[in-house]
UniProtKB/TrEMBL annotation:
Keywords linked to the UniProt accession: Glycoprotein, Hydrolase, Protease, Serine protease, Signal
Catalytic-site annotation from UniProt: 158 (charge relay system), 228 (charge relay system), 566 (charge relay system)
Gene Ontology biological process terms in this record: proteolysis
Domain Inhibitor I9 per the UniProt entry, residue ranges: 34-118
GO molecular function: serine-type endopeptidase activity
Protein name (database record): Subtilisin-like protease
Family per record: Belongs to the peptidase S8 family.
Length: 777
């Protein structure tokens, strides 16, 4: 039996869904929903300044008016995408949406759904500096920190920006680049100011309002009242700030990956509604404007469940940005450690996982039996030195009406103060926020808290700014601590104050929360692409929230330590800014290739990268490996891609010629479908190997002339051969093609799991490595 590919199947199901809407009984309640109607690309060309944008909006009224009538159409549309992305967002009944979906000019129509937000030492760990000294071979020196005559501009789609942060100071910055077309939008916030560093800021909230209801005037500002946007933007392009720390911990000079780049904030994320903060209609509007404004790099630390590309606002916006030469970097998501959880899956995005760096904030738990366990914390309060206190398991401290499951996780209202007062409480991670568990412990009268990982979190421990003395320990140590407290009549413990510890080993290792492959939309494309520091990252923050983002936290900080793939994403964004400064003619695909093929898959003790459970990690966790910025500026060879390659990719997925022509703003003819395994990606993934397969790749020389010879590490049970085995390049820009044949060995056929290897081209100076991922059936 032949099965349709995922895109064709999705289009079929969409048709059946909308068809079913048309055949509902006439007495069904007509429900209004907000939709995005995507019409592809505009044909304005590069110069939209001469275009009558009102006329574009008028065409959208006219189009929707043919379904609803003109007056209803004007009331229904709340966004008209007029510059580079063609389409609109509107409030529609589902029957109308079904009719619109069948129109030949419509590429796709999808619900305006919510997506989630996915942060001093990291640049030292990435070898751009050494104890604050920036060496001559650093990419910072070579790329002049992201500032030169082309004026690098990094945009950020997030929760906005706190403009008063010193990370966005324009001290020693020159005039605003003449290419900049953006604005500083501050409708109701008179104190919000942009400058020569933070050159632009905008807000987009109409899609959010469509879901949340009418908004008051406080929403009409790009000011960051959550902290996430300031943190990510400063990580990508924040200026140098000496003495940055969080409660005295991690003290040093904060700076972004491209510290002299200009930055712009696009606020698309707002207070969560049912767990979602960032809505599709707003995201697409921000992409459209950011392309127009003139950004060079877009950092996007948000995402949702994997979705076919034409129904994914981030994928659509990213495509149009990349088509205009803008590199788009996205977070992989925080749904690990399960397989198949990675988001932001399109091949034109750079997708980033999260790993640790060599800095920890240790706080030790010492038990009455003299056992000692290393945890982490950023608690500002400390117990008396070496004083022991009685311990109690949160399960034994539950209140009369609480469940044991709620009590062991220290949820609100689950603890009995009479049982907890004056003791160290042992809580289990999961469900509610880690810092909220500490707050509940403090409210119940605990003198301290030990937070132990549950099994899914494994050995990943995070340093949080708890409101009471606390230490977060891993799963293995948590089992031992629970065993002690549950089997000892008078259990006792002390918690030491946290300290800052550098040069820890092993590092990096993968964070348990970092989402993993395989890619569930197009398994032939390995995602994530790369990993970067995303655990306990210190960067700028908002003045409107405490460091825990909980209502009870009245503390305020200039910098905060945050973890997530949201934090690893802007590390790559800053590095991309440096590479674009060095090589302005390189495509986003060439830059991604340079980052991927120069990555490392060993930690600082020369062992393979591991995951949070201390097992060997795979490319499903780290992609091509951990980023090495200095090596990325001289990759030797790159795997490049152009617009037609992406269009061929979409054609192979089953999107039709009409859709792709509208999508790409230029005539396109679907050629004979290519094998997705031949897509010129810097990794090689074959998810359905049956017997043997031969795939092709093309590399372009961007370094000195020379001869490269191939080196192969076979995946278990799969033999790999490469023809030719050497490639000779005489000049920059020269391209060479090679073939890779993979054959299943008899011994492997029974396992049917994914196996991993690698292919590398080496000339004595460069080592151009690609992961190989194979699954037989």
């Amino acid at each position: 039996m032949t099965f349709p590919n995922p895109a064709s199947l999705y289009l079929l199901l969409s048709f059946l869904f909308f068809s079913s809407l048309l055949h509902r009984p006439t007495f069904a309640i007509k429900k209004l929903e907000s939709y995005v109607v995507y019409l592809g690309a505009h044909s304005h060309g590069t110069d939209v300044s001469s275009i009558d944008l009102d006329q574009v909006t008028e065409s959208h009224y006219e189009f929707l008016g043919s379904f609803l009538g003109r007056n209803k159409a004007k009331d229904a549309i709340f966004y008209s995408y007029t510059r580079h992305i063609n389409g609109f967002a509107a409030t529609l009944e589902d029957e109308a949406a079904a009719r619109i979906a069948r129109h030949p000019k419509v590429v796709s129509i999808f619900l305006n759904q919510g997506r989630k937000l996915h942060t001093t030492r990291s640049w030292d760990f990435l070898e751009l500096e050494n104890d604050g000294i920036i060496h001559s071979s650093s990419i910072w020196k070579k790329a002049r920190f992201g500032e030169d005559t082309m004026f690098m501009i990094i945009g950020n789609l997030d929760t906005g920006v706190w403009p008063e942060s010193k990370s966005f100071s324009d001290e020693e910055m020159g005039p605003i680049p003449p290419k900049w077309k953006g604005i500083c939008q501050n409708s109701t916030d008179a104190s919000f100011r942009c400058n020569r560093k933070l050159i632009g800021a905008r807000y987009f909230n109409k899609g959010y309002a469509a879901a949340a209801g009418p908004l008051n005037s406080s929403f009409n500002s790009p000011r960051d009242t959550e902290g996430h946007g300031s943190h990510t933007l400063s990580t990508a392009g924040g200026n140098f700030v000496t003495g940055a720390n969080i409660f005295g911990f991690g003290n040093g000079t904060a700076k972004g990956g491209s510290p002299k780049a200009r930055v712009a904030a696009y606020k698309v994320c707002w207070p969560p509604i049912t767990g979602n903060e960032c809505f599709d209609a707003d995201i697409l509007a921000a992409f459209d404007i950011a392309i127009h404004d003139g950004v060079d790099v877009l950092s996007v630390s948000l995402g949702g469940d994997p979705t076919p590309f034409f129904n994914d606002s981030v994928a659509i916006g990213s495509f149009h940005a990349v088509n205009h030469g803008i590199a788009v970097i996205c977070s992989a998501g925080n749904s690990g450690p399960d397989d198949g959880t990675v988001s932001n899956l399109s091949p034109w995005q750079i997708t980033v996982g999260a790993s640790t760096m060599d800095r920890q904030f240790p706080s030790y738990v010492v038990l009455g039996n003299k056992m000692r366990f290393k945890g982490e914390s950023l608690s500002t309060k400390a117990l008396p030195n070496k004083k022991f206190f009685p311990m109690i398991s949160a399960a034994d401290a539950k209140s009369a009406n609480a469940s044991t499951a709620d009590a062991i996780r220290c949820k609100a209202g689950s603890l009995d103060p009479l049982k907890v007062k004056g003791k160290i409480l042992v809580c289990l991670r999961g469900d509610n926020a880690r810092v909220d568990k500490g707050q509940q412990a403090a409210l119940a009268g605990a003198v301290g808290m030990i937070l132990a990982n549950d099994a899914p979190s494994g050995n990943e421990i995070l340093a949080d700014p708890h409101v009471l003395p606390a230490s977060h320990v891993n799963f293995t140590d948590g089992v031992a601590i629970f065993s002690y407290v549950n089997h000892t009549r008078s259990s006792m413990a002390c918690i030491t104050p946290p300290t800052t510890q550098l040069a820890t080993k092993p590092a990096p290792f993968m964070a348990a929360f970092s989402s993993k492959g395989p890619n569930t939309i197009t398994p032939e494309i390995l995602k994530p692409d790369i990993t970067a520091p995303g655990v306990s990252v210190i960067a700028a923050y908002t003045g409107a929230q405490g460091p825990t983002n909980q209502d009870f936290d009245k503390r305020r900080v200039l910098f905060n330590s945050v973890s997530g793939t949201s934090m690893s994403c802007p590390h790559i964004s800053g590095i991309v800014g440096l590479l674009k400064t060095l090589y302005p003619s390189w495509s986003p695909a060439a830059i991604r290739s340079a980052i991927m093929t120069t990555a490392k898959i060993q930690d600082n003790i020369k062992e393979p990268l591991i995951n949070a459970s201390y097992f060997k990690a795979t490319p499903f966790s780290y992609g091509a490996g951990h980023v090495q910025p200095n090596r990325a500026m001289d990759p030797g060879l790159v795997y490049d891609l152009a617009l037609d390659d992406y269009l061929n990719f979409l054609c192979t997925l089953g999107y039709n010629q009409t859709q792709i022509t509208i999508f790409s703003e230029s005539p396109y003819t679907c050629r004979n479908p290519i094998s997705l395994a031949n897509f010129n990606y810097p990794s090689i993934t074959v998810p359905n190997l049956n017997g043997s397969v031969t795939v092709t790749r093309t590399v372009k020389n961007v370094g000195s002339p020379g001869t490269y010879r191939v080196r192969v590490q076979n995946p278990d049970g799969v033999s790999v051969s490469v023809k030719p085995e050497s490639l000779k390049f005489k000049k920059v820009g020269e391209e060479k093609r090679f073939k890779v044949t993979m054959k299943v060995e008899e011994a492997y056929k029974a396992s049917r799991g994914y196996v991993f290897g690698q292919l590398a081209w080496a000339d004595g100076k460069h080592y151009v490595r690609s992961p190989i991922v194979v699954k037989a059936f």
